[in-house]
Design goal:
483 residues, alpha+beta, Glutamine Phosphoribosylpyrophosphate, subunit 1, domain 1, Rossmann fold, six-stranded antiparallel beta sheet, 18 helices, binds iron/sulfur cluster, PurF_N, purine biosynthesis, Amidophosphoribosyltransferase
């Protein structure tokens, strides 16, 4: 279910090696990762002799439910991808995994994240004669591998990832390897799991989140480390670290909103993290109220934490309808206006005459918050206070999360008092950035060495925005290197 007034995760990736019916396992994994991308999905399998692929628009359930499609995806090795498009329009040629035949054999790749120098590299590659089939920046990886002068696929991959700048997790499949790669700062997630293998030995899973392991009965082994390449074949798992170690900067928004609450990321339960964030928020911004009401679904754990810490009753004062259509298809203001009324209903029995604290995870444009507050007031609430389990989202994300341009972000243009007025609440407060870090087990935000990427809150972008703001000289150097 898409909420058009939330930032959107760009993609989910999944890979399986030595697993009976790898396509079905991958479809299940992608189903668990559906929240990371709903526009399109694809699976590529290898049956020991050749590759097979299916790509389709829409949800996982719409694509892999018929026996004919699944029969066309034989093999014990597979990678899969769910897409939420931020670059390139949604047409089948833009659906991943991408597949290419090289001199070393076939190569399929799926990518979560965003390259911040894709445009620069694309221009240079096109000038060299590379013919792009899609408008996705992910295709840059394929062409960089194709033109690399190294012999082995792994050396070519290392050559390619050393030229890209960005936040990404990759899964790739060759004729004899499943490969996982995480960007040098580990902004985007990727985890490794183990399952009973098709041949009785170990089978291996790569996935964006641990919830995709649970659905296929795999054991969590570990997070792929920032800057790490894992190579999986019939001899097991090997690790290569081609980059100099750097302080990691995992995306803090994964904890606040993107990841599924039953996932564990970087050793932290997302559900527990959200409850702790809610508790910290209650400490920082208490309110005299009768009920704590989450904006469902993502605001629920934070609201539980807020209620526990404040001693005020937690109630489901807003009910979400899970069966409405995908209103994001036409994200006009009018449709957004309709969308929220289709998705949420006020529970009048809980709200009438009460002083209500609404807990949500973020305010992006503010359109949804405004309508929800209107609805809660119309249901008879005496006061409406809003508490947000993330700092104000005042900057756009360039690292694989679809956020509106900065001018459309409510927090970029308004003070908290102005936002409260626009949304129509009696009071509005956000968790502080230090409070967020504390809830996640850190002493606070060390501005010299922040533990997370928090650029959408602070504007401190940890990865160069080459295509956007880097000086022209740097782009020219890159072009010269490639030509
Ligand atoms: S800018 Fe925000 S959403 Fe984007 S990677 Fe960083 S923390 Fe995550």
């Amino acid at each position: 279910m898409i909420d058009d007034d939330k930032p959107h995760e760009e993609c989910g990736v999944f890979g399986a090696w030595n697993v009976t019916d790898a396509a079905a396992i991958t479809a299940l994994g992608l189903h668990a990762l559906q929240h990371r991308g709903q526009e399109a999905t694809g699976i590529v399998t290898h049956d020991g002799v050749r590759f097979h692929s299916h790509k389709g628009l829409g949800l996982v359930g719409d694509n892999y439910s018929d026996a004919k499609t699944m029969a066309g995806l034989p093999g014990t090795r597979a990678i899969g991808h769910n897409r939420y498009a931020t670059t390139g329009e949604t047409v089948l040629r833009n659906v991943q995994p991408l597949f290419a035949e090289f001199e070393f054999g076939g190569f399929a790749v799926g990518h979560n994240g965003n390259l911040t120098n894709a445009h620069t590299l694309r221009k240079a590659l096109t000038r060299r004669g590379c013919l792009f089939q899609s408008t996705m920046d992910s295709e840059v990886f394929v062409h960089l591998i194709a033109i690399s002068l190294y012999a082995s696929v792994v050396d070519r991959l290392i050559d390619a990832i050393k030229q890209v700048i960005g936040a990404y997790s990759l899964v790739a499949l060759t004729e004899n390897q499943l490969i996982g790669v995480r960007d040098p700062l580990g902004v985007r997630p990727l985890i490794l799991g183990r399952v009973h293998g098709a041949d009785g030995n170990a089978g291996w899973i790569l996935a964006s989140e641990t919830c995709a392991l649970d659905i296929v009965g795999a054991d969590f082994i570990r997070d792929v480390e920032p800057g790490e390449i894992v190579l999986i074949d019939d001899t097991g798992v090997r690790s290569i670290k081609p980059f100099a170690p750097q302080s990691p900067r995992f995306c803090v928004f994964e904890y606040i909103y993107f990841a599924r609450p039953d996932s564990v990321m970087e050793g932290t339960s997302v559900y527990n993290a959200r409850k702790l964030i809610g508790a910290q928020l209650a400490k920082e911004a208490p309110a005299e109220a009768d009920v704590i009401v989450p904006v469902p679904d993502s605001g629920v754990p934070a609201a539980m934490g807020f209620a526990e810490a404040s001693g005020i009753a937690f109630e489901l004062g807003i009910i979400r309808n899970h069966y409405v259509g995908r209103t994001f298809i036409e994200p006009t203001d009018q449709i957004r206006h309709l969308g929220v009324r289709l998705k949420h209903s006020a529970n009048r029995a809980i709200l009438e005459g009460k002083r209500v604290v609404l807990v949500d995870d973020s305010i992006v444009r503010g359109t949804t918050s405004q309508k929800i507050v209107e609805m809660v007031r119309a249901a008879g609430a005496a006061e409406v206070h809003m508490r947000i389990a993330g700092p104000p989202t005042a900057y756009s994300c360039f690292y694989g999360i679809d956020t509106p341009e900065r001018s459309k972000l409510l927090a970029a243009r308004n003070s908290i008092e102005e936002m409260a007025k626009l949304i129509g609440v009696d009071s509005l407060a956000f968790i502080s950035i230090d409070g967020l870090y504390r809830a996640l087990g850190k002493p606070g935000r060390d501005p010299k060495k922040p533990a997370f990427c928090d650029a959408c809150f602070t504007g401190d972008y940890p990865i160069a925005l080459t295509d956007h703001i880097e000086p022209r000289d740097e782009q020219l150097t890159l072009l010269a290197e490639l030509s």
